[in-house]
Design a protein that fits this description.
By secondary structure, the protein is of the alpha/beta class. It is built from six helices and ten strands, in the order ααβββββββααβαβαβ. The chain is 33% helix and 26% strand.
Length: 207
């Protein structure tokens, strides 16, 4: 019995180690943002825009209409589109960065304007929010501020790093969606994005 447990544990350790090493080899090929910009003849990212594809697990950074770089991204544990506070799903729609936090448990955080007007309309029609909440959320959206998170629609959705487990998670050669609904990229990736995005940057999430 003990022998079987040891064999299983050892085999699992070797498997995970092999996965991480394979992931490291894959990530070695990734070019830094400055190098990608140089290859495209760009010295500065103008009018940055982010497009996130939940099907391909990619976050694409654009300078105006020019694709500058793609980053690997993972999402909420729930594969559906976000509809409520605790559903662990990533929303689909067009949002903007409303706040940039440099000190966060996952490194840096770019908070998004979720729920947007479409999310608010859907929530009101379905009865998830009251008339007063509906009016307040519409007001927040119209003024581009971070949205009230105290309703059934939830909030606190953003783009962030991985944090302390960065080396392990960024080098997994398979997809592992682990967030509460936010978009996670590696610590290195969120640091690169921090240098080019600003409050008001458009973020489009598609599936």
């Amino acid at each position: 019995m003990v022998k079987n447990v040891l064999l299983f544990t050892g085999g699992l350790f070797l498997f995970l180690t092999g996965c991480v090493l394979y992931g490291v080899l894959l990530n070695v090929k990734e070019k830094p943002l400055q190098q990608e910009m140089a290859l495209k003849g760009i010295t500065k990212v103008e009018n940055p825009r982010i497009v996130i594809n939940r099907t391909t697990f990619e976050l694409a950074l654009y300078s105006d209409t020019i694709l500058v770089k793609k980053y690997r991204a993972v999402f909420g544990r729930n594969p559906l589109s976000k509809r409520s506070a605790n559903d662990n799903a990533t929303p689909i729609g067009t949002y903007r960065i409303c706040e940039v936090l440099t000190k966060h448990k996952y490194g840096k955080l770019f908070k998004l304007t979720y729920p947007n007007l479409q999310d608010v309309e859907t929530g009101f029609i379905s009865g998830s929010i009251t008339q007063d909440e509906y009016e307040k959320l519409r007001f927040d959206n119209n003024y581009g501020t971070c949205i009230n998170t105290g309703t059934q629609l939830g909030g606190n959705v953003g783009i962030h790093g991985i944090g302390e487990l960065n080396f392990l998670f960024k080098n997994l050669p398979f997809v592992f969606n682990w967030t509460d609904g936010s978009i996670a990229v590696s610590n290195e990736s969120v640091d690169e994005l921090y240098n080019v995005v600003t409050k008001g940057t458009e973020v489009v999430i598609i599936k």
